Amino acid sequence: MGIGTEWYRKTLLTITGIPLVEKLSTTYGKRLASRFIAGETLEEALDEIEALGKLGIMATLDHLGEGIQQLSEAAAYKEQYLKLIEGIAARKVNSNVSLKPTQMGLALNQEACCSNIREVVKHARRYRNFVRIDMENTPYTQATIDIVRRLHKEGLKNVGTVLQAYLFRTEQDAKDLLRERVNLRLVKGAYKESSDVAYQKTAEVIESFKNIIKLHLDNGVYTAIASHDDAIISWVKAYVRTKRIQKHAFEFQMLYGLRMNEQARLAKEGYRIRCYVPYGVMWYPYFTRRLAEKPANLMMVLKNMSALKR
């Protein structure tokens, strides 16, 4: 990703935040978004996860939603997650759970959010499942980490979070959470952040990403490495070979609808690969972040749009 791609990403994240653009997108873009969304219902998503399982691909299931306005919405999402966990168990598919803290009320009341997440994590533990608290933009970084630490201290070890390599603070966060043996997903980062808190140059982000990956692998902590970047994937493969790290000590993660053939290939090579599978009707924020990641994603959607007009 060069200077042009960096400009593209920042520009797209800016314009997709404009209400008129959002209205037009949600009105006309639903069919196009389906490339990245596994359906609107839990059953549709579980069908997709079942199909992935036949290819040796694991999953993490996300009921889309974020930035709620009332705590009653958080309570409703919590109930959906309890059903989601039961659905995974009933279908016997290999899937973890992912949720966003603002979906559970973090922007409204941190204590209520923690209570909602605690209930989901406890329910997941009953079914021997794991919950990943997704990391959102920087206003919520510390609060998200605090919730995970609190739940771990309460004995709920089946919960982890995400660290974003483009933030200046991430290396220290990684060291701190390593000591507490928190299971982490490591990513570059997908939100628009200022130069006060985040690296703006691609080379700096990649260097940070590699540093936190090495830190976790070298310490023997199971690590989820989320990337579609061939250079990063090849680098990880070479690094674990050099260090004689077993394939079961980490996993690659990719997104539903992106590089599905590569996901299947990694599974055939014996690597653990997990697909992030989102579903639901609140797809717009997720969809726009996927488009912003690289121009190729937008080109793919525009190509599909042209095909629909024929």
What does this molecule look like?
Strands 1-2-3-4-5-6-7-8 form an eight-stranded parallel β-barrel, surrounded by seven helices. The chain is α/β, with parallel strands linked by helices and 310 residues long. The longest helix is centred in the N-terminal third of the chain and has 21 residues, at 71-91. It contains 13 helices and eight strands. Helix 4 packs parallel to helix 5, helix 5 packs parallel to helix 6 and helix 9 (202-218) packs parallel to helix 10 (230-243). Residues 45-297 form the Proline dehydrogenase domain. It is an enzyme of class 1 (oxidoreductase).
Give the topology.
Elements: H1 3-15, H2 19-28, H3 30-33, H4 42-53, E1 58-63, H5 71-91, E2 95-99, H6 110-126, E3 131-133, H7 141-153, E4 159-164, H8 170-179, E5 184-187, H9 202-218, E6 223-226, H10 230-243, E7 250-255, H11 260-268, E8 273-279, H12 284-293, H13 295-309
Parallel strand pairs: 1-2, 1-8, 2-3, 3-4, 4-5, 5-6, 6-7, 7-8
Helix pairs in contact: 1-12, 4-5, 5-6, 8-9, 9-10, 12-13
Provide key terms for this protein.
single chain; 310 residues; alpha/beta; TIM Barrel; 13 helices; 13% strand; nucleotide-binding; Proline_DH_dom
Could you provide a short overview of the structure?
The chain has 310 residues and is an alpha/beta fold. Helix content is 53%, strand content 13%. Keywords: FAD, Flavoprotein, Nucleotide-binding, Oxidoreductase, Proline metabolism.
